[in-house]
Design goal:
Blueprint lengths: L1 H17 L5 E3 L2 H14 L3 E5 L5 H4 L2 H16 L3 E6 L6 H13 L6 E3 L14 E4 L3 E5 L16 E4 L3 H19 L2
Parallel strand pairs: 2-3, 3-4
Antiparallel strand pairs: 1-7, 2-5, 5-6, 6-7
Length: 184
Amino acid sequence: MGKIVDVYKEMVDKYLEEKATVVFANSNVSHASYIIQRMLESAEKEVCILSGTFNDVFYQGAEVKKAFQVAAKSIYKNGGSIRVITADEPDTKDLRQLFKEVNESAGGKDVVKYISAINGGKPEDIQHFIVVDKLMYREEERHPLLKEPLEQAKIKAEVCFNAKEKASFLASSFNSIWERLSAH
């Protein structure tokens, strides 16, 4: 199994370095975590994440958490933003602390909004994705809200590191939801 993960990571790094227009599949939890980590590390100006539960499996890993912290400092230094929309406040203290740190890096700007404010608490009704610099994206197929870690294997996603049109479309969708949440 380790070799397969290594080969996948090598492919991800190659596509990222080349800014490849290749759209590739992602349905493995450790692959997803690595992709998110690498996207955050590459971010220069903007990160938008629309997530059902801001799941611990994806976002709490040490590498992903560190990538968030580094990205926050770099992005805010460049005058950019990290914004997250999720179902509700994360269950884990570590993720709440991460949100607090990102918020502090942003100079107290609002960086997290909760979908329950407008969607009747139905995060399964929204498309989950991450967009970086309106260029890269990871978009999941619609799926019910997953409560158990083993269910994560059911998530299928597509990823591209150079898809300006699709990434801009997703960022625009994110901005529309962000504005609706800001009005509440």
